Amino acid sequence: MLHLENISKSFPGVKALDGVSLEFKAGEVHAVCGENGAGKSTLMNIITGNYQPDGGRLVWNGEEIHIPDVQHGQRLGISIVYQERSLVDSLSVAENIYPINKPKYRWGIINYPALYQNTQQLLNRLQLNEFSPKTLVSSLSPAQKQMVEIAKALAMNPQLLILDEPTASITERETRLLFEIIKRLKEEGVAIIYISHRMAEIREIADRVSVLKDGKYQGTVVSRDTTIDTIIRLMVGRDMTHKVYASNAAGEVVLSVRNLSGAGFQNVNFQLNKGEILGFAGLVGAGRTEVAKALFGANPILSGEVILRDETVQINHPSEAIGLGIAYVPEDRKLSGLFLEKTIAENIASARLQDLFYEEDATVSTAQVLQQQLGIRTPSVRNKVMKLSGGNQQKVVLAKWLNTQPQILMVDEPTHGVDVGAKSEIYDILKTLTAEGKSIIMISSELPELLTMADRIAVMHEGRLVTILNKEEASEEKIIQIASGQNV
Q: For the whole model, what pTM was predicted?
């Protein structure tokens, strides 16, 4: 269906793609893998018409084509679900799914009954029954918004569907639904490009896997005949050994939470020890993030007690939490964690602007120290954050909060959307922090991540902390069972 021949693309100082040739077939799921910065997103932007290649050819159904813009790509039948959501919160689900191709009466007025009917049929196809076409997108959870993004792409009846990290923020149930939809699309002859850092998913859903590294094509393998280790080796250029981390937890309690209640959670009790990583597991909507935001002062605490180093404290605002040595790395780094148009140095300084005069030389110097410590790959800390890969952006968010000198660091989905190499580096950073005596609360939907990193794992279900498992007794099956309410 689509042939790419010797596609190249450069940006100032960066060769993003270097002579990449690939073939995508109708009725096939073709995964494209690579570390952050490998060139995957640039390639997808060229296919959709968002970027123009510097060299090479695109051949669509046997005919060489030029895709000058996204609208032209959509008319050809190319649709994409981006990793970053493109929905408008103030509009309804129906208005988001059909942004420009709404049904209209012959005199040009939008036919809302038809719009809602078409949307409902699409939602039924996706088995999305928990909201209606008239629901405002602002009221949806991140997982529901991701499913609306998928519905928006399917509404265009694509011949080629590109899915960029489609399962990063959806539940296991919704992932299963998505995979069923993908299988049906394959049977209908749709070509699907699947981008994900989750190797197990790729093995399950993809027919073939192509790998990019540093903008260059590394090879294509048949998924069922290839091991995950082989794919990772192509991606990173080396074997990735599974690390076993020693615990740095000490017996000293630094934080006690007693009968804490707030929006989305009630009567939560736990203790956090010095040098410990306390993991929080649970399904989407279980209340994990809400607990962290309450402890950070971003959401109000309705009742309960927070004891910090033997002293009861009141936290009503993030500035108070920062003053007490508490920091919070949010789940969505681009929406809540970074100023994308600002420089790396400015972002790192941003959490301390309330107590510092802004001095550029001092800001740059501090940023350079943290750049070295965290291994942020950039020619200069004066570069804009938007130019960085996902893994390096995540390190900038960590650097920003480490600059506040916290003793307790809460990290929400710390490796969301980053590649296997950057993920391992972030794990090393977090363990180094605990070796220095800092304590970490880690919220993650990736159970292997919690089982690798956490000393203990608190499991939440529908706003309640059900139990805290020691590392030795925890398993994926046990956590899922408790998080699903089977042991409640």
A: 0.64
